[in-house]
């Protein structure tokens, strides 16, 4: 996996990231750090990417088990260290999974498998952060 991140000097502290698959995304800093608050911060991108990684896993696992899953949303609430390096120290994932006839055991299994085996991002972040998760099922 490769990517390129380029500073956009004319935009203060904005950066353009391009993934190896050819997709681009902007990142920006906070105004107090020279940014203009025009895009997510790099650490926010890490948190959002982790949410995408685990949500992908949960949906994929549920679909493989033939569950009638219709929607999945995960909210992440994180705390970072006060001192540099300001690593994530705590992250809570809350899943809202919608579908027809979903069973709590199958959703719990999908969430656990993601966090214990498949989600590279959350497993990596668990090296510095305490990871917790919860879920709710919404009947469609």
UniProtKB/TrEMBL annotation:
Protein name as it appears in the record: OsmC family protein
Species the sequence originates in: Derxia gummosa DSM 723
NCBIfam families: PRK10738.1
Pfam families the UniProt entry points to: OsmC
InterPro entries listed in its UniProt record: KH_dom-like_a/b, OsmC/Ohr_fam, OsmC/Ohrsf
Superkingdom of origin: Bacteria
